[in-house]
Amino acid sequence: MKMVSKPPHCNSVLKLLDWFDTPEHYILILERPIPCMDLFDFIQQFPMNEAVAQLIMWQVVLAAIHCHDCGVFHRDIKPENLLVNTETLEVKLIDFGCGDLHKETAYTSFSGTKSYAPPEWIVEKEMYGCPATVWSLGVLLHTIVCGEMPFGDEVEIVDGGLDFLPELSDTCYHLISRCLEKQPEKRLSLNEILQHEWFTENSMRHLRG
Hints:
Elements: H1 2-5, E1 16-21, E2 26-30, E3 36-38, H2 39-45, H3 50-69, E4 72-73, E5 82-85, E6 91-93, E7 100-101, H4 119-124, H5 129-146, H6 154-159, H7 170-179, H8 190-194, H9 197-200
Antiparallel strand pairs: 1-2, 3-5, 4-7, 5-6
């Protein structure tokens, strides 16, 4: 959190304001957005259309890019770790308890939520930071716009197909599919997600300013 809280700040990542080390605990003084709820509760209580999903996912991807640029692998991007301001729809990525330093070599231990684990981890017990993050973003986006997780268990993560709501736009379908490619080298990069047509349509241009 010290690394991601240094300037230049990212508004989509919760800031660490100060911290103290005691013999038994670390005490963190954190930014407190008000009013807010986590995204898991938010999508249960408020109607979710693609326009709202775009606004939320744009901020989550910016947060993921900021973490990467700061040398941090969050490892647990999911609705419960995203705070949403219920008045402005501003998003904050929280909970770096599973985090690690970003590295270019493979990770051979898993920390996070198993239902967001990429197939390469299940099959080979290793994964790379950026492709694993992109996979988790694909799982997140599918969950937001379809109302359910794309995969029910490890077998489906490795071998299962994707089911989508019929009213989902073609561009959203394509973006999720590209994030959830079974082979990590075929997935989009984080920056390519922001450049995807789903985000570059007219309704999203104001967010890129």
